[in-house]
Amino acid sequence: MSLVEAIARDADELTAIRRDLHAHPELGMVEHRTAAEVARFLQEWGIEVHRGVGQTGVVGVLRAGNGAGAIGLRADMDALPMHEAGDAPWRSQIAGRMHACGHDGHTTMLLGAARYLARTRNFNGTVHFIFQPGEEGCGGALAMLQDGLFERFPCDAIFGMHNQPDLPVGEFRLTPGPAMAGGGFFDITITGVGAHAARPEAGIDPVLVACHIVTALQSIVSRTVSPREPAVISVTKIVGGDAHNVIPQTARVGGTLRGMSKAVLADMQAAMHRITENVAAAFGATAVLAFGPTFIPLCNDPRQTAFAAETAMALVGADQVDPDAPAVMGSEDFAYMLDRVPGSFLRIGNGPGEGLHHQRYDFNDAAIPYGSALFAALVERFLPRGTAL
Hints:
The protein is an alpha/beta fold. The protein has helices at 3-8, 11-23, 32-44, 103-120, 140-146, 149-152, 206-223, 262-282, 302-316, 335-338, 368-382; strands spanning 48-53, 57-64, 70-76, 125-132, 157-164, 172-173, 177-180, 182-191, 195-196, 231-240, 246-247, 250-259, 286-295, 298-300, 321-322, 343-349.
């Protein structure tokens, strides 16, 4: 029996867990019910449980044999603040909250691996099952690190995975080196002078200033960043004014920036400050640029990524694994954990369906045995029985 088939014996129970989590989504750093459920299952399966790591994070610890080696496996638990438009029986029961990124599936895959490993203990060393809160821009990874994650639960390597819609179920993609963009969110507050819309000469129009700033920001990627460096600046909102005949006092602009290196991101931020402040000054207005939650680029350790690719190939076949997939411009705060411990973050097929963060997205339960099996296989190969690291 293959590892996938062995874990698939628990498919009905794992699917029920995933759908229950989907029906009860919780936002970042307040995943109290989710964390309690995770802890309850781990405890039932004989796994040592540590609650409240990084506020609402949970870490399960499982030991076997006398090996000194340790591996970390990580899944995220939080949902998004959005309305679910799907009509599945397990759709969100909480208005304005939805598991639109598959974190319910990631949590379930790691629980499936934990149950299997607790049952078989076919490894020699320590496994840390890391259930992280607040991945969606809430700083959950940093919160766990600041709470001493790797001091309390030291790991020689760490692995995580994220589902990818339109990649067939049972397939995996890995990217050695820089794999996901760093970046963050920004807000610009522009202050002018309010006036009657029929007398624009009496005011300083912050809406006009906002339009010029937005246009100028688009020059950064095309004229400041090398064309050999992937980078994105997207303005996603402009807010200004409430009435048709009033020039407002203030306007606001917001969006996101992404880049594949810390140096490029620093240059982009400096250019954004320079453009924002000077364009506003040219019109006689003022503008304040503030950066919200930021993320460093996610960089996979080449050696551990090759190890993960080999493990995936042994599990599902070489034709189902792309070991050198292109990097993506999305961001992921697992990057902070990989900045401390070598490891890899890979993508698992979610099959056809809506894309991530879509109001009709749903995690594909057929992917659960594959994700759980790969987590378990990584442990068994990294900490083989009969060895002491």
